[in-house]
Amino acid sequence: MQTGHSTSEVEINEKTWRIIVGGVRRLGLVLAKSLSENHKLVLTSSQTPERAEEISKLSILTDVRRLRWDANDPQLTSQMMTDLEALRGDGIQLNGAVIAAGTFPSTPLGSWDVNTLQQIWKINLTFPFLAAQSLAPYLTDGSCIQFILDTCIHRPWLNRLPYSSAKSGLASLVYGLAQSLAPNIRVVGHAIGAVLPDAESDPAFLQNQTLLKRLGCPEDLIRAINYADSSPYLTGEILTLDGGRRWFI
Ligand SMILES: NC(=O)c1ccc[n+]([C@@H]2O[C@H](COP(=O)([O-])OP(=O)(O)OC[C@H]3O[C@@H](n4cnc5c(N)ncnc54)[C@H](OP(=O)(O)O)[C@@H]3O)[C@@H](O)[C@H]2O)c1
């Protein structure tokens, strides 16, 4: 039958929507590229949407919507509600969410003060809490909310205890939210080891601190995200992907 649509139009129309909170940089962007094969994407960033080359490339492969969600925005909650209503108004049904936003600052004992701690927890804890609360009513039944945690929930990073405690707080959120949102929405966390180490870290040292003697790669995380997304019997669980870092003595 002649539909008037090209093959690529039909393929894009058959894709379902996923939102990645923190989806235009680093791991979030790698994930977006992978998910674009089978999904349309809503990507959030704290930055004003610009026509970044990487996002332009993604837009050729699938439908992409950009939202500005900044953890530091005093109007964050109302901004999220406005944006989600607008997406719904455009007929966009979200079938899953990945919350990847975070920061990884070095804050050894002695450097803590009220402002530093508030800032770390605002981005790594408050923001994911608020994003999950805002997103939940807009997700279709059967959706999974996935949080990117850190293997530090098992063994805290001593130079980054405020960050580690925020991620442990998110682990608690995974367990509690899974109970609060069941049976319609599933909730899963991923406690990952070093995948894209920051400039301050020593990759060789991090690699040696694992049982498998290697860093993670984005594909390790992508595999786990796809597994959780497509596993309707899985909820309230944290998958640890750290090459055995937590068992290394
Ligand atoms: N990389 C690793 O090896 C590793 C290891 C363990 C855990 N993780 C976790 O995995 C996630 C992604 O890691 P990554 O290395 O890609 O992280 P990252 O470079 O630290 O940034 C993650 C995201 O957070 C967003 N973000 C930063 N400030 C924000 C703000 N004020 N408001 C809203 N969003 C903000 C950034 O987007 P914008 O700048 O566009 O806003 C970015 O997309 C993080 O949660 C991290 O803790 C990563």
What can you see in these coordinates?
α4 (76-89) packs parallel to α5 and α5 (114-135) packs parallel to α6 (161-181). The chain has helices at residues 7-14, 26-35, 53-61, 76-89, 114-135, 161-181, 203-208, 218-229; strands at 16-21, 39-45, 64-68, 94-99, 144-150, 186-192, 237-241. It has 249 residues and is an alpha/beta fold. The protein is globular, with a radius of gyration of 18 Å. The relative contact order is 0.12. The protein has 8 helices and 7 strands. The chain has a 7-stranded parallel β-sheet with strand order 3-2-1-4-5-6-7, sandwiched between helices. The model has no long low-confidence stretch (mean pLDDT 94). NADP nicotinamide-adenine-dinucleotide phosphate (NAP) binds at residues 22, 24-28, 45-47, 69-72, 100-104, 123, 127, 148, 150, 192, 194-197.
